Amino acid sequence: MQIILKKSIKEGYFKTLDEYGNEVWVSNNREVEEKQSSPMGLFLRGIAGCCAIDITSILHKQRYEVDDLEMHVKGMRSSPSIPNVFTSIHLLILVKGDIPLIKVKRAIELSLSRYCSAAAILKKTAKIYYSLELNEIKEVEQKPI
Q1: d(Cα 29, Cα 42) in Å, to the nearest integer?
Q2: Which of 27, 42, 46, 85 suits a disulfide with 36, CB 3.0-4.6 Å?
Q3: Do strands 14-18 and 3-7 pair parallel, antiparallel, or not at all (unpaired)?
């Protein structure tokens, strides 16, 4: 994996490119309404994407189709210490499909405890919790991994 970062003409903005040419803008400037992510926001996007890929893949291998998956990720940081790392991360995972609850829970737990590299890195400083809503019914509240 390789990323190239280039400074933009705009102060505090940087363009990153991966080896496939995918572009992501990075900045901590919250005053301008442009498409960019903060460096810490990229961590939360990473755990969400990694976990979602794992969940759908695990369930697909068990012959269950996920009709819809949405995730809301909230990271709490150690402010005002420097570095201001995540100390707690909560994932609200909303899944729709004709899938037994136990299978969805197991897929989430396998992802967060074994397969998701982003979670493995973030667990070094943060406690990771999840809540699950399966077919719009809240099933698990604040389960720590």
Answers
A1: 14
A2: 27
A3: antiparallel
